[in-house]
Amino acid sequence: MEAILRDGGYVTISVNTATEGLELLSTMQPDAILVDLELPDMNGIKLLRELNQRGVNIPTIMMTAYGSEGTAARALKLGVRDYLIKPFTTEEILFSLQRVLADHRAGRERDRLNVLLNEYSRQFTLLVAVSQFLTSGMERERLLQRIVEAGLYATRADAGRLLLLEQPGQLQVAVALGQAGPPGGQVPCLAGDEGLRPVLEEGKAVRLCSDSGEGIQLQTGERVQAVLQVPIQGQGRNLGLLSVDRRGKNVPFQGHDEQVLKILAGYAAIALEIRSPLPVAVNPAV
């Protein structure tokens, strides 16, 4: 069996008993398992039940002797992807393994796409709700807070803040939520990790994830494990930035997190430009 599979391009590891197999599975994650119905220490059905109890989700092929098709049917109910009746040919085992692996990959891809679809649907619903706030007459400060709240919810972040360029070289912490420090303080634009500079200097979104215990230092001096920041821009100029972060674990933010935060930053720019008081021109001669 090992010679056949190796000739077919697979790397194999074999054990003699179910106990040895279970021990091996505690330290490695193979792409597939081939198990005989009759093993020295337990039968294959009992082994399958043990795998299910341990939550092992690895495509498995059962090998049975002629006349044990009824047992093979029980194995299928326990999650076996295919079964082979001995004696089987080289072509049969290679075809079975190829098909089982292809089905498993397709299933994982389908699950991944379903997760993404649900996430996109959740974020889209959130963005629609925030867009309605823009036309609701809500005061600017409360609207900006709602935008940061939406950023926290959409990206599953621990903390979020909205910083505004109130004067050259200085950022004003307008909103701080979650585990972030209180709003109201001012910080230099060039403070924090150098990797955050492109947000204001180049108008680019930045996603950073710490690969050490030191973390990433924000403009406010706080240290986090992962951060996503996008610029808030209006009429060709920087108005500030929108930032979310993770404190307890270095799980990076993804591309769809960046996209939804960019949309929220656009909402913030609209709120800042529409709801800011307009300058009044005074003619000294009047």
Task: List key phrases describing it.
single chain, 286 residues, alpha+beta, Rossmann fold, six-stranded antiparallel sheet, 11 strands, 22% strand
Descriptive notes:
With 286 residues, the protein is of the alpha+beta class. The chain folds into two domains: 2-109, Response regulator (Rossmann fold); 137-275, GAF domain (Beta-Lactamase). The chain is 42% helix and 22% strand. The strands form three sheets. It has a six-stranded antiparallel sheet with strand order 6-5-4-11-10-7. Strands 1-2-3 form a three-stranded parallel sheet, sandwiched between helices. A hairpin with a 5-residue loop joins β8 (216-217) and β9 (223-224). α5 packs antiparallel against α6 (140-155), α5 runs parallel beside α8 (255-275) and α6 (140-155) packs antiparallel against α8 (255-275). The protein starts with a helix and ends in an 11-residue tail after the last helix. Residues 277-286 have low confidence and may be disordered.
Write a compact overview of the structure shown.
The chain is of the alpha+beta class and 286 residues long.
